[in-house]
Automatic annotation (TrEMBL):
Catalyzes three successive oxidations of ent-kaurenoic acid giving gibberellin 12 (GA12), a key step in gibberellins (GAs) biosynthesis. GAs, which are involved many processes, including stem elongation, play a central role in plant development. InterPro entries: Cyt_P450, Cyt_P450_CS, Cyt_P450_E_grp-I, Cyt_P450_sf. Belongs to the cytochrome P450 family. GO terms for cellular component: endoplasmic reticulum; membrane. GO terms for molecular function: ent-kaurenoic acid monooxygenase activity; heme binding; iron ion binding. GO terms for biological process: brassinosteroid biosynthetic process; brassinosteroid homeostasis; gibberellin biosynthetic process; sterol metabolic process. It is found in: Membrane. This is Ent-kaurenoic acid oxidase. PROSITE patterns: CYTOCHROME_P450 (PS00086). Pathway: Hormone biosynthesis; Plant hormone biosynthesis; gibberellin biosynthesis.
C-alpha cells in the first residue's frame, strides 16, 4: 500500500474518532440538558461540579463497577480527582439527578433540616421495603410511628427486658456452633439476630416461619440498592418476588393475631405487633394491614442485618488483632469478677461498664460503615456551602467517605479501637445510624446485641477462619464472599 493509501486510511480513522468523541459528548450532555435546562443561568452556575453520566443510567455503571471490585472507594475517588475536594458533587444516581455529599458539616445540615429535606430513597428501596414504612411516609406520620415503635426497642425498660433473652440465646448458639465444626459464621449470626428481632416483634420462635422469612430477606436485600429493572435475571425482579412472599407470610401472621385478640379481648400486650394493632392517631384511626406489614418488613430487616454483620466483623477484627482482643477480654473478665455472686447473667449495669468493648463496636461501625449512604430529597431550593441544590433533586449522604476521611480518622483503613480513647466525634463525623429525626430507632438494641455476643465470645471462645484472605463483597453489604467460613472453638480456662 502506498503513502497515499496510508494517508487516506489515517484520514478516515481520524474522522471516525472525531465522530465518536462528538457522540460521547452528546450522550454525556443528555442528562444535563434534561435536568438543568429549566434552571436559571445563575442557579446552573452555582450547582456543584460533577458528572451526570450517561443518559438514563447516569453514573450507575461506574458505581456498580467500583463496588463489585476490591476498591469500592474508586467511585468517589474519581470525583475527587476530577473536581477536587469540594465535598458536594452533582451526579445521576438510581434514576434521579443527585448531589453526592461527602463532608460532615453538609451531612449534618441535610440530616437535621427537616424543613428543607425529606427522605429520597430510590424506587427499588421504596417498593421493596414498603411505601408505608418509615422510608416512605410523611414527616408527621413518621414522627407518630417512630414514637410508638422506638421505646419498645430502645427504651431502658425494653433493653432490660430483652437482655436475658438475648444472652440465653447467645450462650446456646455459641455452644452449639462450637460442636458443629465448619460453619458459615455470618449465616449463623444472621439467623441468631433474626431470632431475637422476631421475638421482640412477633413473639415467635417458630423455626419454620423464621427460616421462610430469613430466606426471603436474603433475596430482598440484593435488590434494595439495585436499579429498578423488573426483568427476569435482574436483582430487583427477584427481590420483588421475595417481597411478595414476605408480605404473604406476614399477612398470615397478622390475620392469626387479630383472630386471637378477638377471641380473647383481655389478652395483655406481648410484642410490637400488639402495639401496632392497638395504636390509633389523634382521630382514632388504627393502622391498616398494609401499614403494619410495611413497618414489620422494615424493622425485621434492619433489626437483624446490621447486628449480624457488625457482630461478625467485630469478632474477626478482634481475632485478627491479638493486642485489642486481649484488652477487650481483660475488661470482660473484670466485669464478671465484680458481679454479685448470686447474680445470674448480665444487667444494664454490666453493659455500661463495657467501655473498651463500646470502642470496639464504634470502631467496627466506622470502619465497615454498614450503611454506606442514605438518601434525602430537597423539598425546596437549598444552598449548602455556597452550592445550589434544586428542589426535587436527590441528596446522597456518603457516610463511607466521612468515616474514611484521614483528616478525621488518621489511618482510616486500620482497625484501631484505641483511637476512641480521647476522641469525642464532632457532629456529622460519626454517622453509623444516621442522625436527626430519622436516626435509626433500633441503634441501642443493635449495640446491646453485639456487646452481649462479644462478651461471651471473648470469655470462652475463639474463631478460626478457613480463608482469612477471602475477597470481600460490598453490595448489598460488606461481607466475605464465603460468608466467613470457619470454626468456633471453645477455649479452656
Amino acid at each position: 500500500m502506498g503513502a497515499d493509501g496510508f494517508g487516506g486510511m489515517s484520514y478516515y480513522v481520524g474522522i471516525f474518532l472525531g465522530l465518536m468523541l462528538i457522540l460521547k459528548w452528546v450522550l454525556k450532555s443528555v442528562n444535563i440538558w434534561i435536568y438543568e435546562r429549566n434552571l436559571e443561568k445563575k442557579k446552573r452556575e452555582c450547582l456543584p461540579p460533577g458528572d451526570m453520566g450517561w443518559p438514563f443510567i447516569g453514573n450507575m455503571w461506574s458505581f456498580l463497577r467500583a463496588f463489585k471490585s476490591n476498591d469500592p472507594d474508586a467511585f468517589i475517588s474519581t470525583f475527587l480527582r476530577r473536581f477536587g475536594s469540594r465535598g458536594l458533587y452533582k451526579s445521576f444516581m438510581f434514576g434521579s439527578p443527585s448531589i453526592i455529599v461527602t463532608v460532615p458539616e453538609a451531612c449534618r445540615k441535610v440530616l437535621f433540616d427537616d424543613e428543607a429535606f425529606q427522605p429520597g430513597w430510590p424506587t427499588a428501596t421504596r417498593e421493596l421495603i414498603g411505601k408505608k414504612s418509615f422510608i416512605g411516609i410523611s414527616y408527621e406520620d413518621h414522627k407518630r410511628l417512630r414514637k410508638l415503635t422506638a421505646a419498645p426497642v430502645n427504651g431502658h425498660e425494653a433493653l432490660s427486658t430483652y437482655m436475658q433473652y438475648i444472652e440465653t440465646n447467645v450462650v446456646l448458639a455459641l455452644e452449639k456452633w462450637s460442636k458443629m465444626g465448619r460453619i458459615e459464621f455470618l449465616t449463623h449470626l444472621r439467623k441468631l439476630t433474626f431470632q431475637i428481632i422476631m421475638h421482640i416483634f412477633l413473639s415467635t420462635e417458630s423455626e419454620h416461619v423464621m427460616d421462610a422469612l430469613e430466606k426471603e430477606y436474603t433475596v430482598l436485600n440484593y435488590g434494595v440498592r439495585a436499579m429498578a429493572i423488573n426483568i427476569p435475571g435482574f436483582a430487583y425482579y427477584n427481590a420483588l418476588k421475595a417481597r411478595k412472599n414476605l408480605v404473604a407470610i406476614l399477612q398470615t401472621v397478622v390475620h392469626e393475631r387479630r383472630k386471637k385478640r378477638e377471641a380473647n379481648e383481655g389478652m395483655s400486650k406481648k410484642d410490637m405487633l400488639d402495639a401496632l394493632l392497638d395504636t390509633t392517631d389523634e382521630k382514632g384511626r388504627k393502622l391498616d394491614d398494609e401499614e403494619i406489614i410495611d413497618t414489620l418488613v422494615m424493622y425485621l430487616n434492619a433489626g437483624h442485618e446490621s447486628s449480624g454483620h457488625i457482630t461478625m466483623w467485630s469478632t474477626i477484627l478482634l481475632q485478627a488483632h491479638p493486642e485489642f482482643f486481649h484488652i477487650a477480654k481483660e475488661e470482660q473478665e473484670m466485669i464478671v469478677k465484680n458481679m454479685p455472686p448470686t447474680q445470674e447473667g448480665l444487667t444494664l449495669k454490666e453493659y455500661r461498664q463495657m467501655e473498651y468493648l463500646s470502642k470496639v463496636i464504634d470502631e467496627t461501625l466506622r470502619l465497615v460503615t454498614f450503611s454506606l449512604m442514605t438518601f434525602r430529597e430537597a423539598k425546596k431550593d437549598v444552598d449548602i456551602k455556597g452550592y445550589f441544590i434544586p428542589k426535587g433533586w436527590k441528596v446522597l449522604l456518603w457516610f463511607r467517605s466521612v468515616h474514611h476521611n484521614p483528616e478525621l480518622y488518621p489511618q482510616p483503613k486500620e482497625f484501631n479501637p484505641s483511637r476512641w480513647d480521647d476522641l469525642v466525634p464532632k457532629p456529622g463525623t460519626f454517622l453509623p445510624f444516621g442522625a436527626g429525626s430519622r436516626l435509626c430507632p433500633g441503634n441501642d438494641l443493635a449495640k446491646l446485641e453485639i456487646a452481649i455476643f462479644l462478651h461471651h465470645f471473648l470469655l470462652n471462645y475463639e474463631f478460626e477462619r478457613e480463608n482469612p484472605e477471602c475477597p470481600i463483597m460490598y453490595l448489598p453489604h460488606s461481607r466475605p464472599k464465603d460468608n466467613c467460613v470457619g470454626r468456633v472453638r471453645r477455649v479452656s480456662k
